[in-house]
Specification:
This protein has 412 residues and is of the alpha+beta class. The protein is 39% helix and 19% strand. It binds manganese (II) ion. Manganese (II) ion binds at residues 262, 340, 362, 364, 379.
């Protein structure tokens, strides 16, 4: 991505900062993890810099109305270079992030100290208590700063980051489209091999595409849930045998340059939907289309979910699955939300108030009928536009006829 994307991301946060304040964003999440996966980088740090490297700190400052950014990086170390590779140079950091002021981490605390003598507020991207089990480096750092600079107020920078991340720039959308296309390749690879086998075996055909098409990694652990397993929302053991006659629900996504795809599809293991499976599947699919028609600036994701629930009340009553059409009855078969924001986190940090042009959200209605061993979810990623919405994943097949035809014609 061009460095101008990250310059704009920083501007969005700097604009919201109080005068005479600084924000420190660490590239790592926890202090004691040496070898983390590429996509475990602190997403706020990535969002503001485009740099994937551990041990760095980014400082944003606003002093007397003047704003700027400094990146603190690791110095070259010959032995480390031989073991794990050389860290990025100052020039490379500038080229990636557009940040001109690059210093070494050893000077971070003294430079910060100079700012804190003049500044009254330090923002940290503190993780809300209870959200993560891992020890948060920011917590430790926050206590230290409070001790050293008692007059400085430590605030959470998350509301500002959240606000900035709510709408996506065109280049960010390009990364998401790329993640979606790789996800599509993986889904097609699954379909080519669709037959009764273990869930993890079907999942492995997705994994192959992730590598082959050059994804950065996974957006989240893949769910491959056949039969009644699909009624558990976050089932990810993926170790049951997918039986002839059952459906299998996949909820998966590639990660590309830290941007996520989040797609769900529900396929017949033997290549053909039964009449009942198709009946339920089409209710979910039509529900998804209905939500898409409603999606536009001004609505909240909660309101979209309300439309979906109303739709289910009527449709599930029509087929006799529920009797009265009450909230409780619907909740028995549908018990999550229809949308969340997607970005550098699969459940992206974003304002959950009225949608705006440039928001990217999931559209994922589901139906889970445990007593019939059927769980269905169809999920696509949707961009909110000026007047409505645009599918970001229209190439991923989802009509039952198309799916059956694809399996039949492409079976390996
Ligand atoms: Mn989702």
């Amino acid at each position: 991505m061009d460095k101008s994307v990250f310059t704009e991301n920083r501007r969005r946060v700097l604009d919201q900062m109080e005068n005479n304040s600084v924000m420190a964003v660490f590239s790592r999440r926890g202090p004691d993890v040496t070898f983390q996966d590429k996509y475990e980088i602190n997403r706020n740090y990535y969002y503001l810099s485009g740099v994937v490297e551990y041990g760095n700190v980014l400082l944003l400052y606003k002093n007397d109305g003047k704003t700027g950014s400094t990146m603190f990086i690791k110095p070259y170390d010959e032995l480390k270079a031989k073991w794990v590779g050389a860290p990025k140079t100052q020039e490379e950091i500038t080229e990636i992030s557009g940040i001109e002021e690059v210093e070494y981490v050893e000077s971070f605390e003294s430079t910060l100290g100079k700012y804190l003598e003049k500044c009254c507020v330090l923002y940290l991207d503190l993780i809300p208590k209870g959200e993560e089990d891992i020890p948060d480096y920011c917590d430790v750092f926050s206590s230290k700063v409070k001790e050293m600079y008692p007059s400085v107020e430590v605030k959470s920078g998350r509301p500002m980051l959240q606000h900035a991340r709510t709408t996506k720039q065109p280049e960010e959308l390009d990364q998401m489209r790329k993640a979606i296309e790789i996800t599509n390749k993986g889904i097609e690879n699954i379909l080519r091999h669709m037959r009764p086998m273990y869930e993890y075996q079907l999942e492995s055909y997705f994994d192959q595409a992730i590598k082959y098409y050059g994804a950065t990694g996974y957006a989240f652990p893949t769910i491959a849930a056949s039969g009644a397993n699909a009624c558990c929302l976050h089932y990810s053991d993926n170790n049951s045998f997918a039986e002839d006659g059952d459906l299998i629900l996949f909820d998966l996504g590639a990660n590309y340059n830290c941007y996520c795809a989040d797609i769900s599809r529900t396929f017949p293991v033997n290549g053909k939907y039964t009449r009942r499976q198709k009946q339920l599947y089409d209710i979910v699919l039509n529900a998804q289309k209905m939500v898409f028609e409603k999606a536009r600036p001004g609505y909240t994701t909660k309101e979209l979910n309300g439309f979906l629930r109303e739709y289910y009340k009527a449709e599930l009553k029509k087929i006799g699955l529920i009797e009265e059409g009450t909230e409780e009855e619907v909740s028995k078969y549908y018990f999550h939300g229809v949308s969340h924001h997607i970005g550098v986190d699969v459940h992206d940090l974003a304002d959950y108030d009225a949608l705006k042009p440039g928001c990217v959200i999931s559209n994922e209605p589901g139906l889970y009928i445990a007593e019939e061993g059927i769980g269905i979810r169809i999920e696509d990623d949707v961009l909110i536009t000026e007047n409505g919405a645009e599918w970001l994943s229209p190439q991923i097949i989802k009509e039952t006829d198309d799916i059956e035809k694809f399996i039949k014609e492409n079976k390996i």
